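Retro notes (design track)

What went well: tokenization of the new backbones is finally stable.
What didn't: we kept losing track of which sequence belonged to which structure.
Fix going forward: every design gets posted as structure first, then sequence, in one message. First example under the new rule, 196 residues:
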């Protein structure tokens, strides 16, 4: 029974930390305020998390890992070439990430200044740009000429991910989010499918 209560308290601390980081960002967040939100002392909080860095890591590391994995693995099986199916798989994966980790993702992209995750968004851009560059090179090879340079992959990647982040910021309702995300990815994919 004591172990169950400890886990419940750990989860309560994480929920409070998530709310504090979402509202104020890492730099302005207060461990004292997080403890007060849970109704415990700061000393008791430190028995569960060694400090603000550890709390922040516990909140954002899962979504960082999920998004990194999705970008690294493209979110779809390599052998799948059916455009409609690929779009649905990407929509499904991005919807799952936003559904499970909406608040931590917003914290990661908007509130991580001063943490080791401060450059996370830039890292995501680079991962996606590297992948887009490969597709552009393959497309150029098929065309027998350089239609696209690698320099175009960066703004394409930034634009796509910023659009995804903006949909997460603006569309809280899950059904609305899913509907808008499907439209967004379908729109992008119509232009990008030539490279895949």
């Amino acid at each position: 029974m004591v172990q169950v209560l400890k886990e419940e308290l750990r989860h309560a601390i994480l929920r409070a930390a998530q709310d504090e980081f979402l509202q104020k960002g890492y730099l302005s967040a207060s461990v004292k305020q997080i403890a007060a939100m849970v109704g415990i002392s700061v000393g008791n909080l430190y028995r569960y998390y060694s400090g603000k860095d550890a709390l922040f890591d516990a909140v954002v590391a899962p979504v960082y890992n999920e998004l990194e994995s999705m970008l690294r693995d493209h979110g779809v099986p390599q052998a799948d070439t059916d455009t409609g199916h690929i779009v649905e798989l990407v929509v499904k994966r991005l919807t799952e990430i936003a559904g499970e980790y909406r608040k931590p993702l917003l914290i990661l992209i908007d509130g991580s200044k001063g943490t080791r995750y401060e450059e996370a968004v830039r890292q995501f851009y680079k991962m996606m740009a590297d992948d887009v560059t490969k597709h552009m090179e393959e497309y150029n090879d098929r065309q027998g000429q350089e239609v696209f340079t690698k320099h175009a992959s960066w703004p394409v990647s930034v634009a796509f991910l910023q659009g995804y982040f903006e949909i997460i910021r603006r569309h809280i309702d899950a059904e609305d989010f899913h509907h808008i995300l499907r439209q967004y990815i379908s729109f992008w994919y119509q232009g990008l499918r030539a490279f895949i």
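Added context from the reviewer: The radius of gyration is 20 Å.
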